[in-house]
Design brief:
The protein contains 9 helices and 5 strands. With 209 residues, it is an alpha+beta fold. The protein has a 5-stranded antiparallel beta sheet, covered by helices on one side. Helix 4 crosses helix 5 and helix 5 (89-98) crosses helix 9 (200-207). It starts with 7 loop residues before the first helix and ends with a helix. 42% of the residues lie in helices and 8% in strands.
């Protein structure tokens, strides 16, 4: 499947905010958003665009796509699913994205970024309910158990990630067992569990045109 392979910091600069695509690096002085703070491109520093309604809606959608690492067609599919559910469509959309397999691996603390989590899932390092799964877009259901595969525990990569896991705080809807490198979805995420300040109503307005 097609995937953006360019510099991810460029995406943060394009949106004018940190999307935390490089994990801990985003919290340091090396973050280009903090150092440069301009839109990428030849005329980025001089760019002055009125924040018209459509432009604001588009930027909010792009933020959500890039934050969760989802492509355009897939994002539109999530929106259709969210729109058919009861409740607020925007909140449904964000909660659906939170339930992605790769996002949960990241929330568990077993990856430094969602991009890394997606790669680790694709390489078959995790299981769902005891069965190996390698599709990052799987939507986790309440009661599902996500765990690090036993065959991966002795690798140097995961030894360092298990140390990282000890320092992370998981959302309340995930019951994390750090000793066994696993997590159970004891509930479904709510809007309060999304820790990025999205204005999801702008995304809904964009798709409602």
């Amino acid at each position: 499947m097609a995937r953006y392979t360019g510099p991810v910091c460029r995406m943060c600069r394009r949106e004018g905010t940190k999307l935390y695509l490089k994990g801990e690096r985003c919290l340091t002085d090396k973050c280009p958003v903090a150092r440069r703070g301009t839109v990428p491109g030849q005329h980025g520093a001089a760019q002055s665009r009125k924040q018209k309604e459509y432009w604001m809606q588009l930027r909010e959608k792009q933020k959500a796509k890039r934050y969760y690492g989802v492509l355009e067609k897939q994002f539109a599919t999530y929106f259709e699913i969210a729109d058919k559910k009861e409740g607020q469509t925007g909140e449904n959309l964000l909660c659906l994205l939170e339930r992605r397999f790769d996002n949960i691996v990241y929330r568990m603390g077993l990856a430094e970024s969602r991009k890394e989590a997606r790669q680790l899932v694709t390489h078959g390092h995790f299981t769902i309910n005891g069965k190996k799964a390698n599709i990052p877009s799987i939507i986790i259901k309440q009661g599902d158990v996500i765990a690090l595969a036993s065959s991966s525990r002795d690798s140097e990569k995961f030894k360092s990630l298990l140390e990282l896991m000890e320092t992370k705080t998981a959302p309340k809807w995930l019951e994390v067992d750090k000793a066994n490198a696993s997590a159970k979805a004891i509930a479904l995420p709510s809007r309060e569990d999304v820790d990025f300040p999205f204005e999801e109503h702008l995304i809904v307005e964009l798709y409602s045109k």
